[in-house]
Amino acid sequence: MASHGGYTLVVIAVCSLLALAIAVERFIAMWRVVPEARALHEQVSKSLLRGDHAQARAFCERSRALAAEIFLAGFARYGQGARESFDAAVDRERVALTLKLKAHLWGLGTIGTISPFVGLFGTVVGIRTAFSAMAAAGTGGFAVVANGISEALVATAAGIFVAIEAVVLYNFFQARLGRIAAELKLITDEFVELLRERPNVVGASPEEVEAAPAAGA
Predict the structure, then answer these.
(1) The pLDDT value given to residue 173
(2) How would you label 23-55 residue by residue, b for 16+ Cβ within 10 Å and e otherwise?
(3) Of 41, 44, 86, 158, whose CB count within 10 A is highest?
(4) CA–CA separation, 120 vs 190, rounded Å?
């Protein structure tokens, strides 16, 4: 098989293993994003409802959830500047997290695109080798090249299989990423509303409590 375009099977096998490695790595990266974000959001929301901004921020600083960076960006810009800049800071962190989760997915799309062509290249090489052997032997007939052609076609079949594998994984992670992005949008919108509407009353002076809603407006 190596002499009939089988060398490309090594490339195809590497592509298949690479696609699986990317899939496993992205699955681990996305596995706990939403549950951890929800758990942190629940803790932060309870603290904000009590008016304890310091405790809410402490939860974010201690948390290992990826969404903690979004909440910390909100706390950092809370009360500073216009409302638009506060919203923009939170949105930037949310978009940055989404892009981080999207990392390496381009590899699956690339493998899904090039694998059939790699397999086709192996088939062409294998068929050419088979006909070259027939020419060197000085004999003709389909029976002479049938075995070589059948082996060469394995490269095309393998390329198509790996392409299907990569495309299915790519579409799966794109759909999962879309759901994660929607969940993060809902969580961050609720966080922004709570942070803006609930003044910091724990450990704050009466003047600070009165000024807090105006600062968050």
Answers:
(1) 96
(2) beebeeebeebbebbeebbebbbebbeebbbeb
(3) 44
(4) 52
